[in-house]
Each structure stands twice: as structure tokens, then as C-alpha cells.
Amino acid sequence: MAVLVPTPPDGALSLPTAIRRMAPYWLTVSLRTWRGSVVSAFLSPVFYVLAMGVLLGGFIDGGPAQLEGAPDYLAFIVPGLVAGHAMQTAVGDTSWPVFSNFKWNRVYDSMIATPITVRQVAAAHLFFVWVRVTVICAIFDLVVAPFGVFATWWSPFAALGAQSLTGLVFATLMYGYACRISSDAAFGVVFRVGVFPLFLFSGAFFPIANLGAVGERVAQVTPLWHGVNLSRMASLDTVDVSTAVVNLVVLLALAGLGSWWAVSGLERRLSS
Amino acid sequence: MPDLSTEPMIHARGLRKSFGSGDTAFEAVKGIDLDVRRGEAFGFLGPNGAGKSSTMRMIAAVSPVTGGELRILGRDPASEGPAIRARLGVCPQEDTLDSELNVRDNLVIYARYFGIGRADARARADELLELVNLTEKAKAKVDDLSGGMKRRLTIARSLVNRPELLLLDEPTTGLDPQARHVLWDQLFRLKQSGVTLVITTHYMDEAEQLCDRLVVMDKGLVAALGSPSELIREHSSREVAELRFSLADVADDSSANPHQTHAEAVADLADRVEVLPDRLLVYSADGDAVLEQVHERGLRPVATLVRRSTLEDVFLRLTGRTLVD
What is the pTM of this model? Predict the structure, then answer.
């Protein structure tokens, strides 16, 4: 009698296997635009540093006492900018691109016609967005490192971790939102009343103490502030352990919650 | 161990599908029974909104079953979806090709989803491009392909994992007649090679050309099941005489449908008479004899045609409506 090699009863793939099977797709898609991505990944930090750090910073006389421990404005603004940039990149990659994948070009529909499940599709897309955000932040940190913005050798690595985590949080949140809207016009609203104000008022450009007692409290409950603060404490070597723990726990909790929100959103969308 | 040769590829009993809940609930499939056998071409014929695509999505193991029993390739789609999908080919109603990838990469990348290695995926892609006559277009952008070429590429993609069961949802909708015939030829060859085909269509000629057996679906239910010839024999006459009358034929009331007015005059000549807005269908074993009698009675249709009954007539009989509105 022939020996039968049994497949697992449900033939389900493990998540790493599923991600590996989707990797050629995500690599092909990102490689096609790699020139533009790399140029903008290098140019954005250069422009930011020149405009904000050097030119605008030239008017700012504050020292460590006013700038949360930063020696000058450039060192203050860079860690916040990179965290903000992580958010911007993450929401950019998970808004229209996600919506399009189930509404217009239907890439997700073709993926779930295979042994890959809806959950795995969402997880893989988020994973590759996360990788992209992390690479872009790493390039940013690399470009600005010679300007003396990192206090110690481990600062850029720890800051990158905070920035990368910030990107993951916003990628999951926007992903779940993209899955639940009926028209892409809804992105305009969330960019205007959510992303843009967060970028401006979460402590990236000025210490949130300047917002007044109430404003400071409000800023402290926004997700971006936790990322900005963690990134800055790591960059400037001004880590306050209890604050850092709070920042980290909030970001990890949001990433967990966001992942559930994203995956359940895509399941609602595709498994009807 | 179950006998794989006789086990149905698809087995459904009382299969139902609903969307939404409460006041907005909508039942798309209202309890259908069917068995699809290995190696046959099985069709779902019905107008838009009959529940064909909802049924197809359940069979494709991407849409959860609301009620009833469904087994695909002997497995339960609720718990064994990935294993089922590994052995299925799916050609969706709308092309879901990736316009950001070229023609060949659409196949190579799709093959990777099934766990096919890079070298094998490339070889398989070239083989399939050859099969659907798209080898010269391998490096072309998807957007530059014609509608018929896109459809052929989608079918090539659905074959990448050498499926045992190929699901084709409205495969030729939107194609010109020549492209349809090319596609039918390719589907026929696939069937010859042993692939079981499941096809939804609202074209009766497509169903007659391709399907060994089919179900006529209407409003979420199966109205009839059988081979095209069985269905025609059972639900229609051998021939149909089509009579078209002039609108001016009705003297007293110009808004009346002249075909309605004349229906009574010919009712006794036929097994059955159907009144359409533009013509009268008179069902009889001998269409020419009907025409002769019509003329003898002094009726003067502006155009006449005698033809064999088709699935369109079966559909009209079963549902009171035409397939394509």
C-alpha cells in the first residue's frame, strides 16, 4: 500500500510562510519605485535639517533648559521630525494603497484566492510597510548623524526603535480606518483633522510645555507624542525611565490594538 | 478512505447566503442543492442578481456559508479553506490583474502565493503564456492589453497551480464575438485535459457551448437542473416561431402592444405563447406549420423566424423573464 503523506487537516500556512510567499510581490512593487523612494528618503532629511534645523534654528537661542535637554534647536527637532516622518510615511502607505487593494486594483482579492488567508494578507502588508518605514527612518538618522544630533553611540539605534514603533502604530491605525470607510474622500478628513495637527502639535517642533497646562496634557495623550518623546530621550541621552516605560507601553498597546483593528477591518471587508 | 473518482467535486445541500442583518438583510442564495462531478463542465445560468456570484464565492472558499451544507473537493470550506484553495483555480468576474506588474510577473508572483519556487514559477509562467497565446506580450504592461487578452491572462493565472477545479465567473462578459470563441476553445481544451469547470454566465449560447450540465438560477434558487438538451426538451418545445408585428397593426389603441393583441389569435396553434415587447414567441414542434396557419388566418407579421428552442426559452418558461434585460 502506498504511504500517504498527510497534509495538515486544514492545510493552513504559518504566518512566516505566508509572508514569505507574498514577499516577491511586495519586493517587486517597492523595487519598481526604488529610485524615487531612495532619492526622497535622502532628500527629505536634508531639506528638513536645512530649513528647520539650520535656517529656522538660527533664530532660536534656546539652550538645554528650554529645549528638553537638547544643546541646540537642530538636536531638539531631529528626533521629533523623524518620529513625525515615520507617522507620515506609515499613514501614506496604508491609506490609498490599502483602499485601492480591495476597491480598485483588487490585489487582495487575487491573494485570498490562494491558500493565503485574509489575516495573513493584512499582516504581510503591514509587515512590509513597517519594514519600509524603518528603512526610511534609518536613512534619515544616518543622514543627520554627522550633525551631532545623537548624544551617545547607542542613541541612533534606540531612537530608530522608537521611530519604527511609532510608524507601526500609525500604519495599523490607518490600515483599520482604510478598511472601514466607504469612500476614499474620508482620507482627506483624517489627514486634515488628525495627521496634520498631530505632526504640528505633538512636540516635534517645540516643547509641549509651551502649550500651557491643558494643552500639554492633551498633547501627552496623543500617540505621536509618545513616539516623539521616546525618540528624543534616546537621541539626547535624557532617558527618564518611568516616562520611557509609559511611552513604550502606550506605543506597544496601540500597536497591538491597531493590529487587531487592521486585521478585523480587512476581514470585514473581504470575508463577506 | 473515500473513493476520489466518484466523490463529487462540489456537494451542496440547502446552501444559503445572506448579507447584512435585521431590516437590511438580503438573502442572495436561498437554499440550493447540487453535485458537480469530476471532469464535467458545470454551469450556473441566470440573470444578474440571481445569486450566481455569491454561490461562486462560497465555492471558492472565500465567502462563509450562511446555512446548509457545502463540501468542496470533499472538504469543509469553513475549516479547510487554505487546503481547498490550494487546489482551485479562480477566474473572477472582474479582472484582478495587477496593473503595476508586467504580464509575465502577474503569473510569476501569483505562482509564488501557492508556494511554487522562483525557477518553477518562471517556467510555469512561460508555459501558460504559450497556452493562452500571450508569449509576445510577456513584457507588456497589463494596461496595454485588450479586454480579450486580459481575460486570457486571468485564465492563465488561474491555472498556475494546476487546479483540479476551475471556477470561471462570467468568463466572456464584455468580450467581442471573436475573443469569446478563442476563449471557449481554450476552455474546451482544458476540459479535455481533465479539469473540472464551473462556469457562471448569463449568456445562453455560452452555457450551451460549454456546459455538460447546468442549473438555471433565479432569485437565489435553482429553477431547473440538467444538460442543455434535457432542459430544452423538458421545458420547451422543439421549435419556436417568432412573429414580429407592426405597431400600426393595432387600429383602435396605439399604445397597446400588438403582440399582446395577436397572442390570443394564435394561442390554439401552439403548446405555449410568450409575449415580449418586440415579438411573439409561438412554441410548437413544427414552427413552419405554425407560420402557415398564421398566414391562413390573415395575420400579417412584418418579420418571421423559425428556430430551435434554446436555453433562453427555458429560462423564459421557468421565470417569465428574459436572461439579458
Answer: 0.89
